[in-house]
Amino acid sequence: MNFKHKYMFLLPGLLVLLGILIFPIGFTVRLSLSSWDSFFPGLDFIGLENYVRLFTDDARFWESFQRLSFLSITTVFLQYILGFSLALMVWKDIVFQRFFRVLFLIPMMTTPVIMTVIWKTVFHESLGPVNDFFSLFGMTPLWLSSEGLSKVTVIIVEVWQWTPFMFLLLLAGLLSLPKEPFLAASIDGAGPIRKFVYVTFPLMAPISIGAIIIRLIEASKIMDTVYVLTSGGPGTSSETSSFYIFIKGLREFQFGYSAALSLTYLIIMIISLTVIAKMLVKLMIRS
Amino acid sequence: MAQIKLQNIAHSYNANAKDKKYALKPFDMTWVDGGRYAILGPSGCGKSTMLNIMSGIVTPSEGRLLFDGVDVTEKTTSERNIAQVFQFPVIYGTMTVHDNLAFPLVCRGYDKSFIKAKVSEVAEALSLESFLTQSARKLTADQKQLISLGRGLVRDNVAAVLMDEPLTVIDPDLKFRLRRKLKEINQKYKSTLIYVTHDQNEAMTFAENIIVMDDGEIVQIGSPAELFDRPKTTFVGYFIGAPAMNFFGCEAINSNVINFNGTEIATTTDLSGVKNKDLKLGIRSEYIQFSDSIGENTILASIQSVDDWGNHKLVTADFDGNIIKIKVKRETEVPTDKVFLTLPAQHCCIYNNEILL
């Protein structure tokens, strides 16, 4: 039989794929080999000049990348610890279980940008309630304009916003676990700590890895929180890769160079997330 | 090890409701120390509920549970000193086989030399000694199930080892080996083994005593031979044996003779006190014999079909609308049309209201 008409049915999907994925990637590759900016717009060809500049003459990008690695790993680690603790808390039958389950999800339901504006007000160094509290002890920490504390503020806001997502994934995982291993551990005489170490945690390892990877991908794109809270400042002390690419592309209009930055960032992320996933599997499942 | 006594035990999952429904109807039972039991019944008959009551996973809504005379009804699972093997192997995947077997002793704070000696002893009994340093996760399903069992055996004075359909995930040839291993373990450690299954072959080949359950109650307790030869109810007759027992309507004529479709059949059952004429005759297909001519307890039936079951043949015959199944040896010549069938008196079971007389 002739099945040539099958291509007709595949065509809409292929066109969408081409339009939203393949063409943009191809165009970005081509753009990264050009010097397109606001002064000389156009797809000229300058070879690997942008990449040479990136690897030899752009310490700011690599600093922002280091900062991103620190921020994303720290926030995701804290989100995992807190999310797992909250999930364990409402997993068992406790009073107001449903109330707590909904309560813990509220931050995730809010709009990130608006919540960041509120957090900015909360951490405002002269008007915010946080420093009202600290002033009772004679302290006025510079939450938004100190090099170190601005990162801490970004971490606090990110953890507050995204811990519920981790909580939700881990609670779903806990609720899907079989009962028998826990019963067997009770019969063997294991207490709560041994049950967690030898039963709950190993059984949750595959779900934990999935949740951590999803959050790492999301956290590595961190942009809105930094944009609203500190605008990358003071100086560049809280600037992340995506924010730096945004500055180069949409503030300085260096499209060609920002395309080279984006592609480099994409490749580094693919490699590092693959390595992290493998490490997590080795650490949490195989060991 | 202990004698386990269930005193007027019953369980309902909606105990406070007006129309409460029993998952397990009230009953009394004593499990003899060191016995090998199987609880057999269809899905939903209450066998797992009974097991979970003994292990402490379920607290019965009525009655008391005594271990060597001590009331443990309200005690937790870990306080009962009981071992349980589940349908799917439960192992600690992050531990070695040795650490898995040692785990119940480590949790109870035994010293290292005792743990080492006990683990070696149990590993040897279960043929796991060559895997002790391996990760438990890498073993096969039957080996994992042996580890589950081993964790129960390392503890001294376990009241009973409870097994809830433990061979479900095991390959058929391994099932046979594992059942034999369980019997050896029972003989070596003299531990009470209670085995829940819905597979009659498993129950028959494993247990000294089988508890047949239906709809939340114990229907019969007996040895495999007793259940096969003298099923107490028609349910047991249907449930045990392949094919199920033959049952036909009949009526009593005198103290030990019944009328089966116009033919007088002698039985060894005393029917003198039976008022109900509407009885049932039950006979196993294995006990019906081919005859050359008409005689005592003989009927003339017409052959309907012959099925080859490998080591024997299953003959289906019709006797005035009554379908009779007869199991004969493979080499037996089966007539093509009519056949005389003898129903031996000692194997004819008579049922009044579905209960054996």
Overview of this protein structure:
The complex is a heterodimer of chains A (287) and B (357). Chain A is mostly helical and 287 residues long. Chain A has a single domain (30-286), classed as MetI-like fold (Orthogonal Bundle). Chain A is built from 13 helices and no strands. The radius of gyration of chain A is 24 Å and the shape is globular. The mean pLDDT of chain A is 92. Chain B has 357 residues and is an alpha+beta fold. Chain B folds into 2 domains: 4-238, P-loop containing nucleotide triphosphate hydrolases (Rossmann fold), CATH 3.40.50; 244-356, Nucleic acid-binding proteins (OB fold (Dihydrolipoamide Acetyltransferase, E2P)). Chain B has helices at 47-55, 97-107, 112-125, 141-153, 172-189, 200-206, 224-229, 234-239; strands at residues 4-12, 22-31, 36-40, 62-67, 70-71, 83-85, 161-164, 193-197, 209-214, 217-222, 246-254, 257-260, 263-266, 279-283, 289-291, 298-308, 312-319, 322-329, 338-342, 349-352, 355-356. In chain B, the strands form 4 sheets. Chain B has a 6-stranded mixed sheet, sandwiched between helices. In chain B, strands 13-12-11-14-20-21 form a 6-stranded antiparallel sheet. A 5-stranded antiparallel sheet of chain B has the order 15-19-16-17-18, with no helix packed on it. In chain B, a hairpin with a 2-residue loop joins β11 and β12 (257-260). In chain B, α2 crosses α3 (112-125) and α2 runs parallel beside α4 (141-153). The chains are: A mainly alpha (287), B alpha+beta (357). The interface between A and B is medium-sized, with 16 and 23 residues.
List the total number of helices of chain A: 13
- Shape call of chain B: elongated
Report on the biggest sheet of chain A.
Answer: none
* Mean pLDDT across residues of chain B: 88
Q: Over the alpha carbons, how many angstroms does the gyration radius of chain A reach?
A: 24 Å
| The named CATH superfamily of chain A | MetI-like
Residue-averaged pLDDT of chain A:
92
Oligomer: heterodimer
Please report the total strand number of chain B as a whole number: 21
Report strand % of chain A: under 5%
Q: Stretches of chain B where pLDDT falls below 50 for ≥5 residues?
A: none
Distance between the termini of chain B: 37 Å
CATH class of the largest domain in chain B: Alpha Beta
Residue fraction in strands of chain B: 25-35%
Examine the coordinates and then state which fold CATH places here, giving the name of the CATH topology of chain A.
MetI-like fold
- Helix content estimate of chain A: over 70%
- CATH architecture of the largest domain in chain B, by name, is 3-Layer(aba) Sandwich
Helix content of chain B: 10-25%
Element-by-element helix/strand order of chain B: EEEHEEEHHHEHEHEEHHEEEEEEEEEEE
